[in-house]
């Protein structure tokens, strides 16, 4: 990883320049891009599923001494041919996922600063943490791969089947958010093991807690602002519809009462 680090960093810099400058001049949509985006999402969904399944046996077997062995002991994570390649590929996958934003811009969609910042920070940290992160990598990888497998599968289905957002979008967003508290839990446990002077094969850094905490808070706010308002508006819409229906029923009831009353008077007059 170290020998390719300068290449990956160059790609991240190019990505940042692209995101800053291209949206100013690119206003349309590229023809045929929808098909490319579908295959891109399908590829990433398949890649994340394969990597997840490659790391799952190591992750499950790492609990032979509870959380301690899973979080602090590398065991065969890097030495095993299957899990070693999977964990390496997972780290570099954060660089190729930068194309997500590129396709969004070329498709004429707007990007938000949280999306771009998240991509830059995560891809950079993955490049520099590969040699030091140790056993904690299995937790970060397994949670992220599971979340992204669901995300890219949804995006691929959305582009060719669903055609529009459904209620599944908030579920997928919730899954994305879940990886942050899970990894925060792991980082806190590592701190506890280190305080207890146990051997821990990971380069613990308080900056990791800061990064995961910050993203968890930011993504939670984004989720509430995006889906909380939708829920509120739907409640108000449903309430307004209910009130409208109720008032229409009252009006009909009043009309019926009036008709019955006038009918009764008309009958008496006869």
Automatic annotation (TrEMBL):
It catalyses: a very-long-chain acyl-CoA + malonyl-CoA + H(+) = a very-long-chain 3-oxoacyl-CoA + CO2 + CoA. It is found in: Membrane. Its main location: membrane. GO terms for cellular component: endoplasmic reticulum membrane. It comes from the Eukaryota. It is a multi-pass membrane protein. Its EC number is 2.3.1.199. Pathway: Lipid metabolism; fatty acid biosynthesis. It is an enzyme of class 2 (transferase). One of its GO terms (biological process) is fatty acid elongation, saturated fatty acid. Belongs to the ELO family. PANTHER family: ELONGATION OF LONG CHAIN FATTY ACIDS PROTEIN 1, FATTY ACID ACYL TRANSFERASE-RELATED. This is Elongation of very long chain fatty acids protein.
């Amino acid at each position: 990883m170290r020998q390719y680090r300068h290449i990956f960093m160059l790609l991240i810099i190019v990505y940042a320049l692209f995101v800053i400058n291209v949206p100013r001049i690119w206003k349309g949509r590229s023809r045929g891009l929808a098909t490319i985006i579908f295959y891109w999402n399908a590829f990433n969904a398949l890649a994340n599923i394969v990597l997840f399944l490659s790391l799952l046996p190591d992750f499950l077997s790492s609990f032979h001494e509870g959380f301690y062995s899973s979080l602090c002991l590398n065991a065969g994570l890097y030495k095993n041919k299957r899990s070693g390649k999977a964990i390496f590929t997972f780290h570099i996958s954060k660089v190729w996922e930068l194309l997500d934003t590129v396709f969004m811009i070329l498709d004429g969609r707007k990007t938000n600063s949280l999306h771009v910042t998240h991509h830059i920070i995560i891809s950079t940290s993955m490049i520099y943490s590969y040699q030091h992160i140790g056993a904690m990598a299995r937790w970060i990888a397994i949670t992220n791969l599971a979340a992204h497998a669901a995300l890219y599968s949804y995006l691929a289905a959305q582009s060719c089947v669903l055609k529009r957002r459904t209620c599944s979008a908030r579920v997928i967003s919730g899954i994305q958010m879940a990886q942050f508290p899970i990894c925060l839990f792991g980082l806190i446990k590592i701190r506890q093991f280190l305080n207890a002077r146990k051997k821990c094969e990971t380069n613990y850094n308080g900056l990791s807690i800061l990064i995961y905490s910050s993203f968890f808070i930011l993504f939670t706010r984004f989720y509430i602002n995006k889906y909380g308002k939708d829920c509120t508006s739907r409640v108000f819409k449903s309430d307004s519809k209910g009130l409208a229906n109720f008032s229409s029923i009252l009006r009909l009831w009043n009309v019926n009462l009036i008709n019955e009353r006038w009918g009764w008077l008309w009958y008496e007059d006869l």
